[in-house]
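hey so i finally got around to running the thing on that chain from the lab meeting. sorry it took forever, my laptop kept dying and i had to restart like 3 times. anyway pasting the input first so we r on the same page abt which one it is
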Amino acid sequence: MPYFSDNYLKLTFPLANDETPGFREAQRGALFAVGSHFSGRNDAAIITMPTGTGKTAVLQASAFLLQASRVLVLTPSRLVREQIADDFRKLGVLKRLGALPADLPEPNVMATSGRITDPLQWEGLRELDVVVATVPSVSPHMEQIPVPPADLFDLILVDEAHHSPAASWTATLDMFKDARRVLFTATPFRRDDREILGRFAYTYDLKRAYQDGVFGHIQFQLVDQIPPGENRQQMEDIAVAQAAERKLAADRAQGLDHLLMVRTDSKKRATELVHLYETHTQLRLKLIQGNHSLGYVKRVLANLAANELDGIICVNMLGEGFDMPRLKIAAVHSPHRSLAVTLQFIGRFARTAGERLGNATFLATASGVKVEAEKLYSAGAVWSDIIPNLSAARVQREVEAREFVETFGHDVGTIPDLSDMSLYSLSPYAHVKIYRLREAFDINAVPNFGVDREQIFGRVSEDTNSSVYVTRMRSPVPWSTDDSLIDVEYDLFIFYFDPDSSLLFICASSRGDGLYRRIVRDLVGYDPKILGLSELNRALKELEQARFYNVGMRNRQQSSLTESYRMLTGSHVDEAIRAEDARLFHRGHCFGSAIENGNEVTIGLSSASKIWSNTSFSLPELLGWCKNLARKILDERAAVTGSNLDLLQMGEIIDAVPARVLWAEWDKDIYIDPPLARFETDGRPAEDSLTQFSLDVEQSDARGARLVLEGPGLETRIEFRIAESPQFSYLSDEQTKVELAFGRRAEDIVDYLNDNPLNLMLDDWSRVCGDEHFPTPADPYNPFDPQQIRAIDWQGGGVDIRVEYADNHGRVLDSSIQLFLARQLDINENAVVFWDHGSGEAADFIVLRPSADDGVDVTLFHCKGAGGAQPGNRVDDVYEVCAQAVKSMIWCDLPRLVDRSLDRMRRRKGVGRLVRGDEALMLELATRRPVRFGMVVVQPGISRGNLEPRLAEVLAASSYYLVRGGHQQLEVWASE
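ok and heres what got predicted. didnt touch it at all, straight out
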């Protein structure tokens, strides 16, 4: 009969007390948890116990408890391998505890001394009861190591199991799939957040170890008396070394049997420290490195035990599995950056077992190194409070994460190759699109990702109202027409519905707004609504010490390529926002950092109903973040950040358009990265940059507006209805459908607009975006300078100032403003005069005049008939023509303007003819530099001598933005 089955009944579970040895409660709890786990499961059992709390006893007793036939113990290092093998062979710890009879025969134990390179070597292990090995000696992942027999071991005990996700460890564990596996670790989490595969069977954290008296007090001694010198690091090292020497002497003077460990992070630094300690202290130290032989290490440890040394210098080596409780003073020259390593390192020093041992002391300079946002290495750090709480919180977080992931029990269409993919392995970027739904959302509804995407993984959790999907898309590479070159792209989609706020969050690695909308529309049967910026801004609540690195500001009264949207960037750019900016700008997107609940966070939000943080989360963290955002958004109180960002006004939700719409402006991203507009004309596919097309307002009322998108080969109408969902749609089914192509991603223009609404500028100079209204500035602009107004004798020129071009019957009149202007502009100083009255025009007249510096001056004339037979202060006489002038700034690119004008002339769009000059001259002037643009508003209804302030403010605002865009001041041709 196998050794452990034969001696199973010899194992007892005495409980330790002050007078007799035995198991601690934690050790017994861990053992019983192992037995309970394997009574109904066969997945790995994870036992979490801090270093120094008796894992070795639990590890050995598990072999008896589970009546193992043959045991494989995996260790992280040669030294630990030898320690475990020696004690397992003698059953030393279990006999000292009284758990086994002192005369029990020893098991047949072997520690591997080199790699197994022959299958016969594996077979030879069948004669053993226990094999203790380092992974490089037995892992088939390593070269020359053959695959072992699958039935060789029926129990695998893994020491320091946080290594197990590594490829070499995983390959070893996978060779024995039927074996029971017990994974022991002090830290059931990794710095890289890779999953330790298994189920938590028992957790005993540092906090409980302190409460039970297993660990003693830890004190941190800040070394802040640094001697002056040119080499700051060397001076700090000397100060730490001498402080450690004084502390060791003080402890020994009190009768404490303490030793010193000097810790650093590289072999080079360790070598330097050997010389430094020899020069500046009287301490007897030896260096231990990973390349030292096991014999050398054992001799050094023997010297330590015999008091022939005061301590050791090590490089990240003695943190795992090393057992020497007398090490009570740590001179830290390079603090650990990982919480897992830090806790393990501290555990070596905090144990209370042993005679003449006092409290542990750590010495370091004020390095400010952060370990999971806790400044352990700072003045006043109370480690006996910080470390246990930090450990307990981190372990509890890991347990909750495992339990959370297990709620995703409903599989949806997962392919066999991904059937064992763990949700724990996901680390999505914190970026979400948010929709408001009308009713409760069925999280079990399966999304339709489109014909080009194949769903290959799906998990649903009703408990958390969330689901996770992975898709695969095969497509030709964009840089070749060879069909054999196929690009395969995998994307992650995570859905979370918050029932309290009726908000649906989508986090996806593919971030096409149109794709989001199509998926959600298919799931709920209607077009969902995005959140306005004023609602998203509530996510900035509860933030402290907010500072912003990127801030967007949208001009209140402007529609142009260069100044419709201003972006400020910098390390604390919110301080650059001035009080006067609030008069000219509304709030746009923002991104910054702050403190929330004591933790450093980053957060950004944009008008496209998106919120993001510059980090990646685990799945539980992501959904917790979304839930917190939903709570804030549901709370209608305003967010006050305490920064100058608060100066910029937010919009307010409305259900009716408060004034007439003058023009429409694309979202800022269209100008940053213009998409291609794809459509069909006469049955043939066509495409051009979207910014090559004009977008005009045909009509508007309180319900919304009708817009026309027009350009070469395209004319289609889109309707905006503020109180409806969707807000944007084609006017009718007969309208030409337009697809916007953003690289390899494409979406219909109305889907894009419903996720990235147009900015609609109103005739009171306020703005509507989606269902948000941004009011006009309260303070007036400076009046318009009368010197910029040129008085024209319209009556002497025979002009009917009410007629811009033709009468109500469509007859072109010689007495019209435009025919008069055509005669006035046909002069020698003007090389080219292009007349372009009609829908989609850049201007009514475009004048090119060569300049003295071999450049060209370009003037765009915009005409409008007066609202009465006599000049007056009529609002309508000014608003529309000024809007045309400001909007035409998008055409202030001379080659593009010339190409468009000639194209309109050839296609007979509008008037489209040359009053002066020819095509060749026009094309030649388009190549000249520099180019200066000017705008002229022609409106006989304006009176230079009787201009009211409200009209002057409109003219002044238009002129201001023209100048800010790098153009000449606005000129007005008006009446006296």
